[in-house]
Amino acid sequence: MITVAPPIAYPNRVKGLQTGLQTRANIAAMLIVTAPPLPAPQRLIIASRKSRLAIWQAEHVRSHLQTHYPHCIIEILGLSTRGDEILDRSLSKIGGKGLFVKELEQALDNGQADLAVHSLKDVPMVLPPNFSLTTIMMREDPRDALVSPHYKSLADLPSGSIVGTSSLRREALIKQQFPHLNVRPLRGNLDTRLNKLDRGEYAAIILAAAGLKRLGLSARIRTLLTPEQSLPAVGQGALGIEISTHRTELAAWLTPLHHQPTALSVTAERALAQTLGSSCQHPLAAYADWQSPDTLRLRAMVGSPNGTTQVRDDLQARVITQQDAHRLGEQLAQRLIEKGADRILASLGS
Fold this sequence. Notes:
Layout: H1 24-30, E1 43-49, H2 52-68, E2 73-79, H3 82-85, H4 91-94, H5 102-109, E3 115-119, E4 131-136, E5 144-147, E6 162-165, H6 168-177, E7 182-185, H7 190-198, E8 204-208, H8 209-214, E9 223-225, E10 239-244, H9 248-254, H10 260-276, E11 284-292, E12 295-303, E13 310-318, H11 322-338, H12 341-348
Parallel strand pairs: 1-2, 1-3, 6-7, 6-8
Antiparallel strand pairs: 3-10, 4-10, 5-8, 5-9, 11-12, 12-13
Helix pairs in contact: 10-11
């Protein structure tokens, strides 16, 4: 479950008082007494991967922090991760998305950095006990995007066309809908993937819309795929900030960057994946979106990589707290298990 620093309450009124029945002392006792204001940070170091997109994300966090703490010196520590270095094999074959966070966590652990910025879809569902995801920022567009120089939709691609993706989830969804297409692995950072497309190695590639938009590459998007066409990955489009659990003062400093609606959405998605015991070795999609200010709908899919077997379901509930969101994810996971999701995952191994 995502750990969020508790908000500081500043009550300015007490409702329901009946004149003459409560004294000033009674009223004072109801007010929340807060600790003295925490001194502003003087210097912070952000750990980040070295890719252009990762550095943009770290700079995005730095910009927001600078707004709240204008006198703080904020630096970015770029690190190379094992996931960035191994590009000749798919993530599902080299250990999963945790390979993108380990080196950043080591920097937090040894004091080289204070916080680490992640694309939330790259963060394992269970963190080591000494680390916490305290802050979830407002979500960018969670959808997948079709990028192609010649075709405006997957349906337009001729039989046998090569489509590139790094995701087993996308592979399963494409093969289920368009079995005549040839889906092949596509590794590397965003610029590397676009260069491979431009060299003609692929007829089209599928990327996260959020990354393209963040880097000012919206013009490369040929079509945005709806969740009905391509259900997003867990946490897609959201940024998470990880810190050492004992850094409670840092959690408080990060509070202004936290976006609770996004946090509740991704809590439901991650709870579902955790309940299923799923990782990037499994084609899993989960996306939660708000139907009203307090009603969250969660949709999910578990399938086989070849697209022949899929189970889907959705569930909505009133969600106010993280516990509500976590419960929603668990409940939908159980419904998927009843439909056979556990058997699909077991057949794929871990």
